[in-house]
Amino acid sequence: MKKAFFAIVFFLGLFALHSQDAQKISEIIESQEISNEQAAWIACQSAQNMDEASGYSEALAKAVELGWISSGVVAESPMPLQDFCGLCVKASGLKCGLLYRITKSKCYAFKELKANGTLDLAADPGMTVNGQNALAILNACIKKSGGAK
């Protein structure tokens, strides 16, 4: 049942990413640990902040410029789940609770996604995210916000 749910959410996530480069999407889907630059690329593409031909490094620079990702992150290093939750909330424009609105902290973005059922309750903020789950989380944020920001 859980696999079927993730498969459905995964394919819906593909539709939300509006015809991106197939090679990059395949690379992200196959990733066991999504990197900071891959996460920035899918977030920027879903929010339509970049053209489809943009590379990972350009997407990371754009995400840093928009304040979605902290400057100084290592592009190829795996993105922790808590950081990815913060990125998804900012990219989708999802309205979160009071503490998130006050602090804009990725910690509260993570807690919000756990509370609203997007993440499993056993999820650890330090764990890494694989490509399929990254697309599912981003798609869930977009759906709950009513569309990408």
Structure at a glance:
By secondary structure, this protein is an all-alpha fold. It has 8 helices and no strands.
Molecular structure report:
60% of the residues lie in helices and 0% in strands. With 149 residues, it is an all-alpha fold. The longest helix has 15 residues, at 2-16.
List the helices and strands and how they pair.
Blueprint: H1 2-16, H2 22-30, H3 36-46, H4 56-66, H5 81-92, H6 98-103, H7 106-115, H8 131-145
Helix pairs in contact: 1-8, 3-4, 3-5, 3-8, 5-7, 5-8
Largest sheet features: none
Beta-strand share of residues: under 5%
> Could you tell me the radius of gyration in angstroms?
14 Å
Extract low-pLDDT stretches: none
What is the succession of H and E elements? Answer: HHHHHHHH
Q: Helical region count?
A: 8
The percent of residues in helical segments reads 55-70%
Question: Which class of secondary structure composition applies to the elements?
Answer: mainly alpha
Q: How many beta-strand runs?
A: 0
Question: Mean pLDDT, as a whole number?
Answer: 87
Calculate the terminal CA-CA distance, rounded to whole Å: 31 Å
Q: What form results from the Cα inertia axes?
A: globular
